[in-house]
Structure formats: C-alpha cells, structure tokens
Amino acid sequence: MPWPSRKRDKGAVADKKEPDAKIAKTEEETSDKEEEEKSAKPPAGSSKSGWKNWKKAKESESGGEESKITYCHWLLKSEPESRLEKGVDVKFSVDDLKAQPNQTTCWDGVRNYQARNFLRAMKLGQQAFFYHSNCKEPGIVAIVKIVKEAYPDHTQFDQKDPHYDSTSRKENPKWSMVDVQFVRMTKRFIPLSEIKAHHLAHKADGGPLKDMMLFTRQRLSIQPLTQEQFDFVLSLEEEKPH
C-alpha cells in the first residue's frame, strides 16, 4: 500500500484528540477523556437559533418534508500527525491523500467490527467528511467520495503491517476496505468544539446532531451520517468561525 495504513479500529480511541482516525484510518483503545475535555465547553455564539434558522431554510427548500432516517454519508477519521504503531508511522493527513495518484487511496487498517460493517455498507459515489483526529485541534478538513465499494483489506494478510491479523483467512477474510477520492477542501476548518456546541444545543431542541455518532460513539473511526446531519455540518463552512 502506498502509505502506512491509516485507518484502524481496535475499539478505537476517541479523539484525544481522537485517535481513531486513520488512525487513522484507525481505531485504537484509548481514553475518551481528552476529546470530551476539548469539546466540553461550547464556543460562545452557537445555539438553538442556528439550528432553527437552518431547519426553517431547509423546510422551505423541501416543501416541509423531513428526510428519512437513513445513513447515506460518512465521517472518516485519520491522523494528520506522526505516530508510530509497531514501528510504522500511521500518519495520514488530507495532504497525504491529495498527494496520492489521482488523489485516491484505499481506506485500510480498520479492525473494529462495527466500523468494518459501515465500510461494507458504503455505496459508490457517496460522500464523506475527512476528519483529522488525534491532533492538537481535531475537526473536519475536506470532503471525499467512495470510488470503490468494499473489498478485502490486504493489510490483514501482511505480517509486516501493524494491522496484520493472523486469524483472518484469504478464503474468508475478516476485514474490508473501500477506495476514497479527494473531492475538495471544506471552505474552512470545522473544529470538533464547534460541532460539539451544536450537538449539545440539538440534544435540547431535537436538532439533527443530537444523536451524531461523533459524540455517542466517539471511538469509531468510520461513522455514518444522515443526509440531514451531513447538510447541517456542511452548512457550517459558510459561517464565520466562533
């Protein structure tokens, strides 16, 4: 593979920054405390009004129809800073993705069953947020799309790879990966702390981020998003940072 595997999932780590990203594309077992501490204090200025105004605009566009509760978008975590795992640097930033041929890469190294199942549910053309995790300021930096649906992850059979799995068999592989391609950078960096503020407000008034897995299942490096969640988070790139 063109770079050290970045996604991993062993149970994962919450952003401790959040290491489950590439962990990047990966998921390790670590404490969620740091992530919670980093996002515990919502920035001033975000609250119910933002959600209500956004909802009103979306209802106007859709004639008042609410989107069905289905997952059609994703959030993929990856570590942008160097970290050695079994002697291999698992760093993989959005710049690393952009440097790949055709700005495309396989999302390998996931070793968490739920995250693997999410990979297997991904469909060609679906979009995902590229999320920098386990770093000084975690958050969303770009949008990618699925360009190849799930197929066996080759790293599970590579004894030199940090994510080698001696229990997996080629005739019945345990782990899967997909290929993703860079679409564009978000218009601005959308930090975890800002998304957290909206999540807390939505828990109170029923907004789309109230059950967002970024806060209910922090350790997962592969997370599904509803259309409403994706649209709301994407709308934040048009706002001035708090």
From TrEMBL:
Query: What segment(s) does the record annotate as region Disordered?
Result: 1-62
Alphabetized, the UniProt keywords read: Nucleus, Phosphoprotein
As given in the record, the signal peptide range reads: none
One cellular component GO annotation, for this chain's record?
nucleus
Q: What is its main location?
A: nucleus
Question: Where found in the cell?
Answer: Nucleus
Where's the EVE domain? 73-235
Any stretches that span the bilayer, and where are they?
none
InterPro entries tied to this protein: 5hmC_binding, EVE_domain, PUA-like_sf, THYN1-like_EVE
Answer whether the UniProt record assigns the keyword Nucleus to this protein: yes
Residue ranges, compositional bias (Low complexity):
41-52
Q: Which regions are flagged for Basic and acidic residues bias?
A: 10-28
Functional summary from the UniProt entry: Specifically binds 5-hydroxymethylcytosine (5hmC), suggesting that it acts as a specific reader of 5hmC.
Name of the protein described by the UniProt record: Thymocyte nuclear protein 1
What lineage does UniProt assign to this protein's organism?
A: Eukaryota, Metazoa, Chordata, Craniata, Vertebrata
- Gene name of this polypeptide: Thyn1
